[in-house]
Amino acid sequence: MEKKDIEGKLIKIAYILEVIVVIFITIAVLAGLINMVKYLPEIFSHGGRAGFEVFTDFLSYAMLLVVGVELIFIIFTHSVTHTLHLVLFSVSRKLLIYTHSALDLLLGALAITIIFVAIKYLTPIEEKDNV
User: Fold this and answer.
1) Cα separation of 42 and 55, whole Å?
2) Is the dihedral of CA 28, 33, 37, 42 positive or negative?
3) Which site among 47, 76, 110, 125 is 20 to 30 Å from 15 CA-CA?
């Protein structure tokens, strides 16, 4: 068996494994969307600090689902732009949910700025058109 034949078979196997992973991630995101509905009555029924905590949990859950969707895009496209979007959503989620000090806020805002600059100036033009 030649080296090219082995490489071709390994690429096919890797693609099939990627598809299987994407199917599982898609099922998990869909289940998460259904499960996310449970937060809506809780948001409306709680007030004050308890309502804030429920809403924070809701945002955390929603951003986690968005990260899952962006991960699907990355697996299929192998795109630098989608990878930067995933990092952007991950930093945004951390900034919205887990920021406890002004330094956290400053570093998160700086990270988001750097990601936006990278998307604007460092991603290939053809990727920008496809996103």
Assistant:
1) 9
2) positive
3) 125
| Residue 89: Cβ within 10 Å count | 19
Please, which pLDDT band fits residue 127 given cuts at 50, 70 and 90?
low
pTM for this prediction:
0.77
CB atoms within 10 A of CB 43: 13
Task: Determine the 3-state secondary structure of 41 from DSSP.
Answer: helix
- CB-CB contact of 60 with 68 (8 Å): no
Taking the C-alpha atoms of residue 38 and residue 100, their distance in angstroms, rounded to an integer, is 27
Residue pair 18/75 in contact by the 8 Å Cβ criterion: yes
Please give the residue range of the domain that contains residue 18: 3-130
What's the total number of domains in the chain?
1
Site of tokens 């496809």: 130
Conformation bin of residue 48: beta by default, left when phi > 0, alpha when psi is -120 to 50: left
Within 10 A of 54 (CB to CB), how many other CB atoms are there? 19
